[in-house]
Amino acid sequence: MISHRQGNAQRIAALDERAEALHLKRGMGIADARAMLPSIDVVEADPEADRRLLESLADWCDRYTPLVALDAADGLFLDVTGCTHLFGGERSMLDDILSRFFHQGFDVCAGLAATPGAAWAAARFASDRIVPGGEEEALLAPLPLAALRIEPDVRASLESVGLRTAGAVMAAPRAPLARRFGASLLLRLDQALGRLDEAVSPRLPVAPLSVERHLAEPVMLTDDIERLVRLLATTLKADLERRGEGARMLALLLFRVDGAVSRIAVGTSRPLREPLLIQKLFHERLAALEQDIDAGYGFDLVRLSVLSAATFDMQQADLAGETSDDGADIALFADRIRARLGESAVLKPVAVESHLPERAVAMLPFAETPQRISPPKKPDKMQGTKPVFRPERPIRLFRSPEPIEVPATEMPEGPPMNFRWRRALHRVARAEGPERIAPEWWREAPGQEEAPTRDYFRIEDSDGRRYWLYRQGLYGASHAAPRWFMHGVFA
Amino acid sequence: MTPLDSSDALWNLLEHNRNNCEWKLTVMATSAVARETVFALRRQIAKIEGTLPERLEASAGAAPIDANVPSGDATPQNLTIVRHGLAVAPPDAFLRTGAEGLDTALSGGLPKAALSEIHGTATRDAGAVTGFALALVSLILKQGPRLPVLWIGTAEIFREAGFPYAGGLHALFGIEPEQLLFSEAPRLLDALWTAEEAARMTALAAVILEIRGSPQRLDLTATRRLHARAQNAGRPVFLLRQAGEPEPTAAPVRLVLSAAPSAARETIAGPLAGSIGRPAFTVSIGKSRTALPGQFTLEWNPHEHVFKERRIGEERAKNPVPVVSASRRGKDPAAASGAVLAFPAVEPPALGDQPSPRERAAHRRPRRAG
Fold this sequence. Notes:
By secondary structure, chain A is an alpha+beta fold. Chain A contains 14 helices and 19 strands. Chain B folds into two domains: 53 residues; 271 residues, P-loop containing nucleotide triphosphate hydrolases (Rossmann fold).
């Protein structure tokens, strides 16, 4: 069983032990391999799927440390600084990782060292080794040049001058090395030996606060998960109180026994720290995701993280011990609706400075702070005088104006006499208008054709229904005849 | 049978009875004996329900039930039931619309802590239905604290009838954009869930649930849940149903809305001909525990935020086109008042719409004789 890839020719990319026993090697052409063994089973490589698998493994490795980074296509960096004592020391942590991966069906090589470079080398060339700080040189010296994470052409030229192990490179004088092979070689060397710091950039932002609970007996029921959330949130509350903050964004990570990780996030519209409310939010979220979360054999680690926090304003309770804060009720209500139905389930209209009716009101997801998307008005002389004429606007607006048929108008530029909308003919009884709304040329991209102006009419049909129609374009202004649209209805 | 079941059954019976009553009223409104029977039946229902008995009273000053019926004939159409013992209910239990006739007919106004249905017979009546509901919300906001209003709708209704436009609401109803919250649910089930959660919040001034048609999910049970929550919270829930059929629901009041020709703009020189001024609505009482079915035309005053009832004589004098009954093709709400019986049997020719079955039959006959 061999997987393979394209490289101008089909070549072996990876192979299992049985194939290795048959003296097949990586990089061998598929045609050669087939000539040797016609019965081999060849599968096309799927780098995307490999990537997804690696990312899910990285998610799972979150249980050991929040700092997990991907390394090329087949490696993971775990920054376990300060985490090892939680698992009983370095050795037992490494054993735990290896045994859990083994039970999931992965054959993993791991190495633990004080520097990323040394750990990388230890994992790939000296499996399962723990390198104490300061012994990186001893580790690297006998290893081949590939252990230094250097480019293949640099490696080839080093080998051509007889430097075949890392130890030989370390023993060579630095200045000629840098001059001949570039600074990257020395950089890698220094990083591996700990002379230079190397930062591992984690995949996910590190949560400022998180609490977790390892479970001896995996949980499967949603009710149990909710109860755990409450317990964790109670622990979290003390931390949040100490920081004077409330959670704005919370994530619940459920680590399944077999390695799958479910990540459930909820946002709040005001800082939150009450465990009961946090539980309620996750209750809605879990109810909405019921189909998507597969508990399988159960979850053995549950973690609640605060992804983002904000300053928590203390509320003064009255003597009866109750805070009468309607805003909090609404915020919680909106959060629950959003947790269940999605981020845009509760919308708030916000006035925008624009002449175009569809642009003048923006619908934003509910947020606590009321905001207007218009620049703060400069105090000028006109302040205090209200506009005398405020154009009438409909109470319902169609998201996309609906084309209507207008057979005849009274005057070329006048309102229609009748129109057909949604296949029904309406006779116009009264009309007011036009109100001309020109397109906002300052928004148009240069070179873009100018949008036609609109002439709006308020129309009352013979049944007394009131509509807002517009004619796009002018008669005789262009080749295309003006078109009519239904844009809204009045009360 | 568990107590719950039996109470359910009783409720269904009552609901059935009530619908029966209305049906009888529509058919036999002219017969005095039948009316007596109806009110005897109503008294019985009142007794079962544990409410106060009602009295039938011919109010001289009350508004006529139907503006379309020429007044002057002696038939006592303008009968109104006035409920005795209103003092039992707290004085602010009802939202007075300000239109005398409608308030009297509803025995004090719309119940504030309840589910109220507002129907439109076609989707294009959305303007009238929405406008009337928002006018009620505006009246509520005028009385109480400035709490937000939540408007829940399905994606379908917002697509078909247009999304409520905050830019137009302030001028007409004085509702600030900051006071509005919208919730768009992809499915009816989600909208109902949101509405149920919202109905028990006291931090909202009113909840508007808007749906289209007569879905099965919105049955007696679902509306009863909404109604019970609204009663507990003491906040109104308005159920707007565009293009919906009247169905048994738990809402005590159902109003059927259609648009009415607007008033002309007032100028110094008198009404401006051909202008579109204050919006007007035709409100028919589709269902109420106390009221006779009736029809009223209300005008909304956007400056003072009050309703004004339009009397018969105040109909626009020089209307360039004949005013056709707004809901000519649907289930006619006006029929409930018994007034449509007075119309001639031949319908006015449909304006380019689908001709009625009767008209279609006429089409098939050869028209030209010679």
